[in-house]
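Why do we care about 3D structure at all? Because function follows from shape, and shape follows, mostly, from sequence. That is the central idea of this module. The next example makes it concrete: a single protein chain, its amino acid sequence, and then its structure expressed as tokens.
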Amino acid sequence: MIRPMKTALAATALAALAGCTPAASGGGVDTRPEPRIVAQQPELAPVQPYTLPPVDEFRLANGLRVVAVRQSAVPLVTARLIVDAGAEHEPAARNGLAVLTANLLPEGTAALSGPELAERMERLGAQFQTGAGQNLAFAAVTALKPVFGEALRLAAGTVIAPAFPEREVERVRQQAITGHVQAQATVEGLAGETFARAVFAADAPYARPAGGTAASLQAITRDDVVQWHRAMYAPGNATLLLVGDLSADEARRLAEEAFGGWRATASRPSPRPSAARPVAATRVILVDRPGSVQSAIRIGQAAIGPEDPDYLRLAALTHVLGGAFNARINQNLRERHGWTYGAFANFVALRGAGTLFINSSVRTNATDSAVAESVREFRRMVDEAVPAEELAGATGNMAGSFPASVQTVQGLAQRMQNLLVWGLPLDFYATYGPRLAAMTPADIAGVGRGRLTPGALTIVVAGDLAAIEAPIRALNLGEVEVWSPSGERIR
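And the structure:
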């Protein structure tokens, strides 16, 4: 309910909202100049070192690696069983098999049906989820310490002895197909999938969407799921990450109780490198979505993996380009020109490779202008030195936001999972802030010249071809290709 304001108060409030000062008491016009408000950016606080909680590491007799991180601020524990069973290892003809298998784990075990498992987890107040990506499959459970052991044993059962009921396989598979079809109905989904196909070689695992396509998912059977689980899910191919209020002895006991009886064996898969396509000059790829009022833009290139020595410097460069609201590309496309609700730069680091790209959705009638400005901003990262103050703001933002990301056991587990999957030292984050603070414009200039290819970009635009093709061609950025949504070149 809105109560009416008294007249004098209302007049003052409305004047303030209009950016005016109230009239003088005599009723005349107030000619006094409005006060000038000068906004000053607060000085950056010194970067505080991050103290990594105690980490214990050991192996069970069956070969399962266990990493336990003690964070005892609250009586809460999270566990992540990380399996080297990501989409990078699956056959191309069964694209989506890794994600489908992981998503089916909670749908029933030899002892419990899916609904029974969900009811038991709910009764414990536990959070449980499974999933997979390019580099891993996982099962994660979080619960209060007094009930965590039971929740962990329930989660372990889904990994060790999943039932994969035929009816649930079909249901989850159809959900995945529907999800891909829905994604392909958006310009963002079209641009994202096309960009990966364009950047990586045709036979590279990273050229395929981890979740599969409608066509590849349609070919997957329950037998495929069972065989994949049998071949990939084994203690020698997995790591159990425990984070929370646990001592080293408690962690060992819980790991033994939940996974000590796991006896599966599997050959450790060999890495399958995802080679980038050789790009000698900038290429422009257009994908048609007739009648779209927006165009999705991805402009960038293949990049390094997180194990590369330049990883942190390239991450800082990306943050300057588009890692925050006040970064360059958003200030240009959104704030200066009003073409989009948001424009950002992404550095997606995968094992052994990655991508770096500008990402935005813009008004159809501004597509060519947004593409031209995005390319210009990309080139600036190589052609112009980043001012020291701007770099300090970017690295300060990265370092300053890090502590909040590891305050919860789930957040810390996610960060530690990255290190385990990427093969980085477990104390990587102990020096994260100081290394960022020590970066100089010369560091960013060096990584820009050494790693960016502004003259050989991959530009993908998904939108209404009838409206965007001619203006984009007129930019003369490079050879223009038109692709179908499924990745075939039409012309």
